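Sorry, explain these tokens?

___
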Amino acid sequence: MKRDPLLKHDSSFVDKAPAVALKETAQAAGRVLAEPVSQWLYSAPRWLPTSHAQTIVPALFGRKPAVRYRRERWDTPDGDFIDVDWLAHDDAARPASTAPLFVLFHGLEGNSDSHYARTMMVAAHARGWHGVVPHFRSCSGPMNRLPRFYHLADSAEVDWILRRLRERHAGPIVAAGVSLGGNVLLHWLCERGTDASIVSAAAAISAPLDVHAGGHAISQGFGMVYTRSFLKSLKKKALAKLDQFPGLYDRHAVLAARTLYEFDNVVTAPLHGFRDTDHYWTTATIRAHLNRIEVPALVLNARNDPFLPERALPSQAEVSASVTLDQPDHGGHVGFMTGPFPGRMDWLSSRVFGYLEHFLPGE
């Protein structure tokens, strides 16, 4: 079993102070990695001093690189559809059919235009890889057909998407998920065990490993800024779904929801077969099952992520030998911006791709 070269010589990396871990691993990593070690060990810039700044600035003000996509619409096994955005290459620079395919599952209310999606697709393009962003239902623009959306434990959706990609792609496949997408991907890895080897490796970025802890964190104080942003989009979709299916749930309860807990109790949980929010969030919490993963997987969470308190992060002893935990002190939620103002957003893609390519055939 290959291990992440950065952590190769010390599986207890995440249980130590970053400065100590750096001293113990940097020399070894430098002998193994093609990229400079400085690109792998995250340090927040001084002009982004707080977890909220490290989260909000990249998402709202980061410079998103230009990416061209080619869209396909796939009919789902249950009679719905999803839109799949493929990374477009010029004919002269089109990768070989056997080049790696990078699959990215987006976060809550995200899509192929999200800052992290564009940044990582640019990284895939630069490496001569294929890339694709499958959208969860309702996230590509048009409303989906069925009385359902998507959720934190939607592993069946990931399964049929990855198996369809496996059928049509000749080369190796690697997958990453961001926030909600990372949580769903981890569910799939835990449930499928060795059957998940249709992907060579995977990465989960800022996944809410303990959904109860994360939900509580963004339902109070400054966390309500994120909640209100999510609810603005989620409520709009929920009301549009009621136009499709009158009486599906209580319109007034949707409008009255002030937290994700309240919204999930009215919409997400009942639409997807859960009794209530507590049942949904308990089922979606993946931390206790990370010891079941058999495919190499990077689980990257900043310790100051405002969406998940540090106390909810697992230790290396709690996960399988196939899992590498990377828990830098800073980075926020899907932030990890570096450099002087106005900052760069390529550290995340360097970390993720540096990990994934280590497990490709022939590497």
Notes: The chain is about 35% helix and 10% strand. Residues 223-244 form the longest helix (22 residues).
